[in-house]
Amino acid sequence: MSDFLNTLTPDAGPDGASDVPRADGASAWRRSDAKGVVTLWLDCPDTGTNVISETVLRELDGLLDTLGGAKALVIRSAKRSGFAAGADIDGFADIGRDAALDLIRQGHAVLDRLAGLEVPTIAVIHGNTLGGGLELALACDRRIGIDGVKAGFPEVQLGLHPGLGGTFRLTRLIDPIEAMQAMLTGKSIHDRKVKKLGLVDALVPERHVDAAIEAAIRGDLPARETGLKAGAMRLSPARSLAATRMRQEAEKSAPRRHYPAPYALIDLWHDHGGDADAMQKAEIESFATLLESATAQALIRVFFLRRTLKSGASGASGIGHVHVIGAGAMGAEIAAWSALRGKRVTLEDVKLAPLGKAVKRAAKIYEKRHLSGIDARDALDRMMPDPDGLGRARADLVIEAAPERAELKEKIYSGLVNTMKPDAILATNTSSLRLETLFDAAPDPARFAGLHFFNPVSRMPLVELVSHEGVAAETLDRLAAFVGELDRLPVRVRDYPGFLVNRVLAPYMLEAMLMLDEGMDKERLDRAALAFGMPMGPVTLADQVGLDICLEVARSLGRGLDRPVADVPDWLARKVEDGETGRKAGKGLYDYDKEAPPETASGDDEDARIIDRLILPMCNAAVECLREGVVDDADRLDAAMIFGTGWAPFRGGPMHYARVRGDVPDTLRRLEEQHGPRFAPDPGWDRFA
């Protein structure tokens, strides 16, 4: 889900399109006419992003009646953010199957009409061209991409597959295996590959778009090559073999019992890939069926949860220069990501070697994000190693990302007194230390807060914005806006042991360690969690986080909470003392030179008992956090766990899961009888269940 939910917004876009008048009777379209060519500009009102809604398609249908003697139709977007971000999810949120079928069939009728026009039709796509937006472009005869375009079908991330003709139009336009891969993964395809696959007929800079349109109208664009593979895949035996392999691959990352959409898509292509008309009819029925599924409804809810968090990042931060203290893994990632998002960054460390590694890490991040050579160079130029700490005095925001030792952080803060700008903010990235133990040492407690990123910063969208009793509201608002400018999701939490995410997540890992102490097999524990839908088993996660961090978080929770937590086995401290801290050391609970954590789930019925011991304490901790006012509401809590940890998104988060399941307090009482008071249901269940 993270690739779909964290797309960057290119700066490319049409100039002057907003001056084109609205088409007669249309709210979502502008129209211009020149030399017999009609250009329809999609420009959904009151938003910076186009979506393909019922209104958009209905108005397009009406506009197709007004083409008259036009010699060509061009469809473009007036938004700088891109062509279109997909279908209007709000339109599908609460409708039944019959209403969904009617809506989808109406949409297909409009796009079929567009595809059947006798005049040449050309889509000019730029920026994010996703889902329904890409399906609109596919209904045109030709597609011209502007440099930086990203195209894709992210519907699988919502428990769906393309529903406006994408399944049959894409598999017939390009290599069907590549087409299926794009739809099954939901990943965006970047501009050069978009051209290589044949999804666009030309890839040009904005200044050459008009010439490319003229070439398309004249028929001068290169002819498409369908290739032998495309022809072979229209034959049932070839599709059958390919579909079998696709199902095997899908099962590794998206088990059928949790994620039906990939398998419905594979079945569509397997059964009807040789007949476009049959595949279209089957696509409509399949989409409507998936829309009713529990998985799709939960994932659509996750989409709205993300939007809720994003809405808390409004306004301008006034932060242009960021100074990061500590060039370890977290500090380096924070610095690299801030520079990628356009901030000037200085990165300080007491040693030179980490600074050099940080620059190399940044280059790898930019490569993985598909930045062009120029954009990657510019981002690296914005990120300056600063061994002397000269950036401290010039920065609008200082982020301390030093090791988790209070005395070290307090020493850093004392060095910032009378050095930082009067209006600059100091933020700590601590994951285990209470802010109440740190803010007295800060130069100005009113301008000090927690800014807890998750590892790796370049992939994890959540940032916990941690308050304390002395922080100013303006500080929190500016930090929330800053998180939004980084294309990240802020969740506001109050100072509490483990804050929110670690408080809820810690019982998952700590209970697993107790179960290991009881003699349980570590692979069995991890497989049970994977079967539940967690992205990583608790043993693997503990190694990934670092056993030293786990130990510190466990001790912090033990000191700071009024309720009992799982006892930490003595062997965990010994492992940490011996340097066996997990994956980063090559050895922890797993020995990575000799073994690899499991990647597939277990199907054993008895693993339901393991799942209850691992998952229900998280639900209990979630209720505790709500009762204690650590976070505003259950929706934000669920969102934080999904975007901060990858918590089984198809289950909707721990509170949603508890509500759907219904028996969590009773099951906790039974576990309390068997395993002790740490399972006692929180007093908040009556209020928050």
From TrEMBL:
Name of protein: enoyl-CoA hydratase
Catalysed reactions listed for this entry: a (3S)-3-hydroxyacyl-CoA + NAD(+) = a 3-oxoacyl-CoA + NADH + H(+)
Protein family membership: In the N-terminal section; belongs to the enoyl-CoA hydratase/isomerase family.
GO BP, sorted A to Z: fatty acid beta-oxidation
Domain 3-hydroxyacyl-CoA dehydrogenase NAD binding: from-to ranges: 321-495
Signal peptide: none
Domain 3-hydroxyacyl-CoA dehydrogenase C-terminal: 498-592
Record keywords, A-Z: Fatty acid metabolism, Lipid degradation, Lipid metabolism, Lyase, Multifunctional enzyme, NAD, Oxidoreductase
PROSITE patterns, A to Z: 3HCDH
Organism: Pararhodobacter marinus
Enzyme Commission (EC) number: 4.2.1.17
InterPro entries named in the record: 3-OHacyl-CoA_DH_CS (IPR006180), 3-OHacyl-CoA_DH_NAD-bd (IPR006176), 3HC_DH_C (IPR006108), 6-PGluconate_DH-like_C_sf (IPR008927), ClpP/crotonase-like_dom_sf (IPR029045), Enoyl-CoA_hydra/iso (IPR001753), FA_oxidation_alpha_subunit (IPR050136), NAD(P)-bd_dom_sf (IPR036291)
Record lineage: Bacteria, Pseudomonadati, Pseudomonadota, Alphaproteobacteria, Rhodobacterales
Pathway the protein contributes to: Lipid metabolism; fatty acid beta-oxidation
Enzyme class: lyase
GO molecular function: enoyl-CoA hydratase activity; long-chain (3S)-3-hydroxyacyl-CoA dehydrogenase (NAD+) activity; NAD+ binding
Pfam family, one: 3HCDH
Organism superkingdom: Bacteria
PANTHER family in the cross-refs: TRIFUNCTIONAL ENZYME SUBUNIT ALPHA, TRIFUNCTIONAL ENZYME SUBUNIT ALPHA, MITOCHONDRIAL
Location of region: Disordered: 1-25, 584-605
Annotated SUPFAM superfamilies: 6-phosphogluconate dehydrogenase C-terminal domain-like (SSF48179), ClpP/crotonase (SSF52096), NAD(P)-binding Rossmann-fold domains (SSF51735)
